[in-house]
Amino acid sequence: MAPPSDDLKLLGSWASSYTHRVQLALKLKGLAFEYAEEDLADKSPSLLLHNPVYKKVPVLLHRGRPVLESVIILHYLDETWPDVPLVPADPYDRALARFWCHFVDDKLGPAVGAVFASPSEGQAAAVEQVHENLRLVERELREGAFAGRRFFGGDKIGVLDIVLGCGSYWLAVFEDVMEVKLVDPEAFPLFHSWLRDFEEQEEVKAIIPAIDRLLEYARGVRQMMLGLSPQQQ
Amino acid sequence: MAETKELVLLNCWASPYGMRCRIALAEKRVEYEHKDENLMEKSPLLLQSNPVHKKIPVLVHGGKPVCESLVIVQYVDEAWPDRAPLLPADAYGRAQARFWADFVDKKIFECGTKLWMLKKEAQGAAKKEFTEGLKLLEGELGEKKYFGGDTFGFVDVALVPLMAWFRTFESFGSFIAETEAPKLVAWGKRCMERESVAMSLPDPGKVYEFVCFMRKMLGLG
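ok -> structure tokens follow
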């Protein structure tokens, strides 16, 4: 039974993995909220008012006050509703989780995005960059800070699982659209099995859009990118 | 207890990110060993402690490394919670502090690096982003003594290394801080009155010389 979450509203976008992170956290914590889908080509006055600096989703409104940036929102949710904790309790574990969340957002995420945006000549280099980043994660799972764990958060999904997991489904989508292998189960066995486990969780299945919708969306964006690329002119 | 474990900060004297860590540790009055790294010849300890990025600063506490300056500052705040809190007590205040600290990373220091690393022609967009960033920060500061209100806090720690770097950014970005961001200059002076800040920021002239030297090495003339 969801505890009272008094006036929670999420401005998001259905294909945004940053939005999914917040939706998943809200689901895991059993928090009720109102959802408003943003058309990113025609941003609402509410979005522009509450996130004037970046004008981006997700924006969490709690009692009318905006909380911005997905990882910051996850921390806020955890500190306001401590049941079903997502962020570790120990300061060192928290530091590790934060470091790897940054890694996902600063290195791995952009590398995956670069594969998608690359013209065919640049693709091999972009794919190698993704592999280099995945190797770092795989090593951490094999012999580093997260060795022996089912999830990065331990027995249960934690903040790093949410941050890495919501977005990892794009790997399968891009593999299909770009016809490239990003996550070879033999090269990244631990990452692969973690991802399968994550995707099987009920709460995750309820949040992630159907693969067909994601594929269609990705194909559309890729067409548009190629259409705008200077090589095409 | 946190104090009984060995504490080492791997740093480079000119790094604004390293300055943040020094200030946080000084605010908490924590004893630590300071190791200046030669970035042309990184120590085995650095490479082992930060294998992912091989960058400073790294705080090694009881043999366990913490990397990334804002992660380190939050760690220091949480490991020594009984004194000089850097983050506010309420969740909303913390969310705001984290937002603005992240903004400082992106719009001031990352952007500021472009001002001296790029050739003059490419600088235009970076300069605009940088000066706009300064104005937004001034708006956020308002009439407060510090970004943390009456208390010197997380955003103050994140931004104040700018005081050691302003001269460099002014020079390569062709602007005058006093004109573009007078409130921040005044705020910076107030921060410099704190011992933790005064002892952690190098002389701006030395930073400027260092950057000129770096630019020569990078062939930027």
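The radius of gyration of chain B is 17 Å.
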